[in-house]
Structures
1.
Amino acid sequence: MTTLEKEIAFDVSTVRKDFPILSSSVHGKPLVYLDNAATTQKPQIVLDTLIKYYTEQNSNIHRGVHHLSEVATFEYEKARGKVKNLLNAADGKEIVFTKGTTDGINLVAHSYGRKFVTTGDEVIISAMEHHSNIVPWQLLCEERGAKLNVIPMSDEGELLMNEFEKMLTPKTKIVSVVYVSNSLGTINPIKKIIDLAHANGTPVLIDGAQSVAHMKVDVRALDCDFFVFSGHKIFGPTGIGALYGKSEWLEKMIPYQGGGDMIRSVTFEKTTFNDLPFKFEAGTPNIAGGIGLGAAIDYVQKIGFEAIGEYEHELLEYGSDILQSVHGLRIIGTAKEKASVISFVMENAHPHDIGTILDREGIAIRTGHHCTQPVMLRFGIPATARASLSLYNTKEEIDALVCGIEKVKEIFG
Amino acid sequence: MSEVNELYQQLILEHNKSPRNFKKIENATHDADGYNPLCGDHYHVWLKLEGDRIADIGFQGNGCAISKSSASMMTTAVKGTTIQEAKEMFEKFHSVIMTKIGDEIPEEKVEELGSLGALVGVREFPARIKCASLAWHTLNAALNNSQKSVSTEN
């Protein structure tokens, strides 16, 4: 493709028109939304899909014989198929709808962990995990008398792979690592992690919360055993997400929650469980959310991950260069392989003060520990300011961020 | 003056840069830890009470300019006062910064606060009110511990 063709294929001004919120104002200034690692904005097609569902299709699924129930069931299961295609899973039964990434990790920690992890076993996570990929394993390890090992990282924010290799033992029952760090932007070498773990006979869970909107994932090429993500990070609604699990694991795992939909038959003496994936989907799910997520996946795939990846990388390079040149500003997380997350600290201004001043300029960034307190501890900082970019952001918005940072410097010197 | 400039007044910036009583009090009679888990602001406040008077006060820790300057100004405001006076000051300060955006604050109420009045601009920033009150809640916790232990002994 020539440069011109690429520009035609990906025109950010056209993309921006798909997101109604991007034309709004905050404190009298045009909104500059740079908090995409927290949540992404929603394109009109997702909003329309939600309205359509509630106005024309609303019904409970999997049990009604009436028309609306059939329509809702069809749409919901169609969305499952879209998630399957997004991840290139072999079969829809390997896609379990969840509330989101946290729910997916908790499901695996419960249903795999409580089946396979016993006293003296070990679980491996990494030093850059979100609290949602730390706490469920801590709870499991405490309950089971197992040990939680943490892959350390370098000052650049890269995992020390030789340390990881040394950690793998016959006692290692699962490795659970993040694909893209939400606070550092590091893209971890997950293929290598998976291969090393598999050579040790250990399954691997990949936390894809921060990767899913930015890069193509192929769970079969990666050969990961579990992959989790949240719908709201990929332009879908909140409260919906998915877990991919290899069917051979999902079949062996114990149910997560008990209730309707996850059973085949119930008597007071004995309950038999439903087939995959329904065994892990107790109760009425977030039907609208699932269908909305399907619309979001369609939207992203229409643009294509190649175009998204290239454009975001360009933004990341532009933003990193320009921010690096700001005197007194230090970028936290300088791995060679990075996604479009720029975390930074400033010499004289605390991240919260930066966040407040930028907010009054209409610029939304995230400040704080980003649910990664061990990362803050590792870098000896209480918090960072984080600009996280998405496919609808522009270089002009990064310029606005830099102008805002100049205001911070005017106040704090 | 813009709201941001009103928030970050010179006095606040100055206290942030050179916080007063930024020290641990040896032989403190009371102390407490203050932490905002949402943003990670973290301070420790030490008190030395002589009778019902705050003879000395110090704090350490870190956080944003609002929390640090508020802690610093608090120490200068309550040093030498009685417990009762300090608590009354907290109530006045709290009611001023919690005044709803758009509601008028009587001038005398701000004047009563002395230099603490510099923080009045924080009420325009609801997300930051907790930053301004963190040190005060910590002081309160330190004082309440003392009263609890006193009442238990009684």
Note: Chain A touches chain B at residues 349-353, 356-357, 360, 367-369, 373, 376, 382-383, 407, 411-412 (CB under 8 Å).
2.
Amino acid sequence: MSLALRIIPKLDIKGPNLVKGMHLEGLRVLGKPAQFAKYYFEQGADEIIYQDVVASLYGRNSLHDIISRTAKEIFIPLTVGGGIRTLEDISSVLRAGADKVSINTAAHENPELISQASRVFGKSTIVVSIEAIRQPDGTYQAFTDNGRNQTGRDVIPWARRAEELGAGEILLTSVDREGTGEGADIELIRQVNGNINIPLVVYGGIGSSEHALAAIAERKMISGIAISSMLHYEYLINNRNTEGFEKEGNIEFLKSNRFYSKITPTPLRVLKKAFMKKNIGCRFV
Amino acid sequence: MKVAIVDYKMSNMFSIKNALDAVNVKSQITFDHKTILEADGAVLPGVGSFQEAMRHLEELDLIDVIKEFIACGKPFMGICLGFQLLFTESEEFGLNKGLGVIEGNVESLSRKLTSVPVPHVGWNTVINPKLLNQQKFGPRSKIVLDDNDYYYFVHSYYVKPKHINDILTVTRYGSHEFCSSIESENVFACQFHPEKSGKKGLNLLQNFFS
């Protein structure tokens, strides 16, 4: 036996709600993040990622409440990202109960933040999040703000630089595939995987167990796979709740009782069994 | 049982507190010498750099307090960096002296491993070097770590105990096998994070502090 592949439910958060969109846009409300996190913990999730998708537009207090509530109920690592700009921001999210933070925009604006944060909080606490969009010439560019703003940086050298500066891990999102259920961008993963020596967590496009297997097939630095819709839908099949949401946010999708057809709702355990069948070590609870 | 979580301004103490709360073990986060020494058990947690950690312990005058606590024979647990700090010295950012409670040193994983990522992040299994265990611990040990149970690891350095008898479990990563926990009299310390290792981790905390 050795290191297990990490299956990491990724929960996008807007204000008090868990949301999900496509290409990181068009957010629809799915429920309350802490409830989903607790469910995933009990089902054997290896880690949880909370991504505050509109961090710059809202106050941070609701996120801190969600983090501290979650940290009392789940005993696996919790990574929090979104709107983290300074060492103080990192410190306050860690104090609320997060174990790691993921940084994107602030790292582009001030790459030194990665090295400072890594020195102060330990390398393994600092995850650099890369939002990649494929360009017409076949290269990949790094974006910020949910794929809205171009940074002018190529993904590969940026991933390398993040490692040099002291990132403990890379969270790689394919914005093109995110929310589509069309499968991972294997080429993107291959390119990044071949150019770094720190753990890589891949995200975006997974709509079935087969997609998940294909995404991690190369292994090497791939140590985890982050998944959203496929797991969220499975939760919703048994736990639909349309009550108690604030006026803001689109809950029509949640009420409609329909899912996006390209995504197969799959329980964590079933997904892990699919990995085990291919001799990829997973942890069961 | 009241457990002191030694606060030396280095890590998220709250995750240990949350975990102990969840298994109904009373605990307090503190750097007060008297509170620590009067506690029935203690945890030395830690995330961050070895050198910084020793500096903080020194500034808070906690080095002798920790040694005195351990000498009393009450249950003491070191976690992650708090495990490494118990050793003689570490090569992280130059050679630095540790607490010296357990003989041995701390070395970099990246010197040993090139084909797998460092830091070692994720869920890995612990293995009991069996013969050794039966001889040394037998049923007396309060720590039940089953072969092939998964625990959560996050680290770039590993410990090399001088005395093989101190080793409770080892863990394999890539081509390398390192000591993932030790038990020496009243001290149990581990490289993994019981407070982040799901229900197995919670059980371990509960068993040790009961």
Note: Residues 193 and 219 of chain A are 8 Å apart (CA to CA).
